[in-house]
Design goal:
Layout lengths: L4 H53 L11 H6 L1
Length: about 80
């Protein structure tokens, strides 16, 4: 059973009465801010992965540090 146009209008009117026009627009603004924040986080993560991939692809300078972890711990 699909809702008719009248059922949709009644539900929409009830939502407006319960929450008010200001509250609904405020919630939509919060949803928009959340989406922007999510996109920004994804972009920063991708940039971080790209930066670490560039660092990993550079050849290592073997002469810079030849001490091993056990040498550093031992003394």
């Amino acid at each position: 059973m699909q809702p008719s146009i009248w059922q949709i209008l009644i539900v929409a009117a009830l939502v407006l009465i319960l929450f008010g026009r200001g509250r609904i627009s405020e919630m939509m603004g919060d949803v928009g801010k959340g989406i922007k924040s999510f996109k920004k986080g994804i972009t920063e993560e991708e940039e971080s992965v790209k930066a670490s991939a560039q660092i990993d692809s550079k050849p290592a300078d073997v002469s810079a540090d030849t001490t091993t972890t056990s040498d550093k711990i031992a003394g």
